[in-house]
């Protein structure tokens, strides 16, 4: 299979099928969320939301944001060296596991989550991280269709199974079954992802592990990790904060509506970002100003239109769904969804200048904006908590994401104005 980004992304059928897989994955997530809300008590829905958010956050510590370095390296390296790069990255991940997994015990020692879910937490955290990294590598290699299949196994099909079994029998209506199905789906995704890499040229594996390359990646990844941990903390702290200031019942509604709003970003990622950002990075590395500008313009147009349509659809379709659920705990707090959709729209638009800056390898601007965004979120949420405990966190998300989008846009425009295109060292454009 041709893995040239310029050729693969131009096939409409690949994009159409990938969108179908992403749509099926999102439909499965929706089905899972609404079935959980229908059959389980709000306290169980709230616990599921806390566990899912904490696992999601732990993935960044396990991955160390190393992919942000390795992806650019992969795109700029001969295909004959890809297997070696992936092998060296795996060595790094194993080392990180030995360090981070024991530290994650603090989540349970501090009482944030009950010890009863600890075994599931660690199994799911490892499988989710491996699946995430394999998905990213497949995207970087422009194998978006296979990446979509891996993602569907990891996040979609098992959720459909859970939803069907919940309807079928009361015996399956518990979180233990949810975690079991999740683990099986994530394992199958990892298995398919690993098997798909067998087609790579493995002759380069006779070379020794390049520790210098790994340490160079660590130096690049550390500031990006701080940035990612800061922005992802917003998506984790929000749930714990809602529980603290508004109670478990409001948290259950927040988990449901946040899942709907976050699906907008997830769909945008699979339908737009994964196809366009490799092209933008490659164009910058090749000093192709026309292709870079064309890619950024396409990113802006598609991100705006798709995000707007999805937000409007979610806001309209939620009402018949809430009527079907028939639980006042959710219907009386539907205002949370509208604010969350606005927050996700702003977040999605911030990703346009984000990828422009990322392609230029000017990561310090991304780092700074993410860290400042966390502080803005904490300040806004604390200020609004006494005014409106229910809406304090969603409104704080809107404020902080608007701040982040402004920072990234200013950084992008500044760097773009100073950009010099030409065949420089490494055949890349540079910005002064």
UniProtKB/TrEMBL annotation:
GO CC entries: plasma membrane
Lineage: superkingdom: Bacteria
Compartments in which it is found: Cell membrane
Membrane topology label: Multi-pass membrane protein
Record's keyword terms, sorted: Cell membrane, Membrane, Transmembrane, Transmembrane helix
TM region(s), chain numbering: 21-40, 46-69, 90-111, 117-134, 146-167, 179-197, 209-231, 251-277, 298-322, 334-353, 365-385, 391-415
Record-given protein name: Polysaccharide biosynthesis protein
């Amino acid at each position: 299979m041709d893995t040239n980004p310029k050729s693969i992304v131009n096939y409409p059928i690949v994009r159409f099928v990938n969108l179908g897989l992403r749509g099926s994955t999102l439909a499965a997530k929706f089905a899972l969320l609404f079935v959980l809300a229908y059959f389980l008590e709000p306290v169980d829905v709230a616990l599921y939301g806390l566990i899912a958010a904490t696992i999601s956050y732990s993935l960044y510590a396990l991955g160390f944001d190393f992919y942000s370095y390795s992806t650019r390296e992969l795109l700029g390296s001969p295909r004959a060296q890809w297997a070696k790069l992936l092998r060296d990255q795996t060595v790094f991940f194993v080392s990180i596991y030995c360090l981070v997994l024991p530290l994650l015990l603090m989540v349970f020692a501090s009482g944030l989550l009950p010890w009863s879910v600890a075994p599931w937490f660690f199994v799911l955290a490892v499988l989710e991280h491996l699946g995430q990294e394999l998905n990213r590598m497949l995207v970087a290699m422009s194998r978006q269709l296979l990446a979509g299949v891996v993602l569907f196994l990891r996040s979609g099909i098992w959720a459909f199974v859970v939803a069907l079994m919940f309807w079928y029998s009361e015996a399956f209506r518990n979180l233990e079954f949810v975690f079991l199905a999740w683990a099986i789906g994530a394992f199958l995704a990892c298995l398919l992802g690993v098997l798909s890499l067998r087609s790579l040229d493995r002759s380069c594996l006779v070379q020794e592990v390049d520790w210098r390359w790994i340490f160079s990646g660590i130096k690049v990844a550390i500031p990006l990790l701080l940035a990612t941990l800061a922005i992802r903390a917003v998506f984790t702290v929000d749930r714990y904060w809602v529980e603290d200031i508004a109670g478990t019942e409001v948290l259950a509604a927040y988990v449901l509506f946040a899942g709907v709003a976050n699906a907008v970003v997830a769909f945008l990622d699979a339908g737009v970002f994964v196809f366009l950002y490799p092209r933008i990075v490659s164009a910058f590395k090749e000093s192709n100003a026309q292709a870079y500008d064309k890619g950024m313009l396409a990113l802006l147009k598609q991100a705006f239109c798709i995000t707007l349509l999805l937000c409007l659809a979610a806001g309209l379709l939620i009402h018949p769904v809430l009527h079907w659920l028939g639980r006042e705990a959710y219907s009386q707090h539907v205002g949370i969804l509208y604010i969350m959709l606005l927050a996700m729209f702003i977040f999605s638009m911030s990703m346009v200048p984000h990828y422009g800056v990322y392609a230029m390898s000017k990561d310090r601007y991304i780092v700074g904006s993410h860290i400042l965004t966390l502080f803005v979120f904490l300040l806004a949420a604390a200020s609004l908590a006494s005014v409106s405990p229910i809406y304090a966190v969603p409104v704080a998300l809107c404020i902080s994401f608007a701040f982040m989008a402004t920072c990234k846009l200013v950084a992008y425009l500044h760097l773009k104005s100073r950009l010099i295109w030409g065949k420089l060292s490494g055949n890349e454009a540079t910005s002064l």
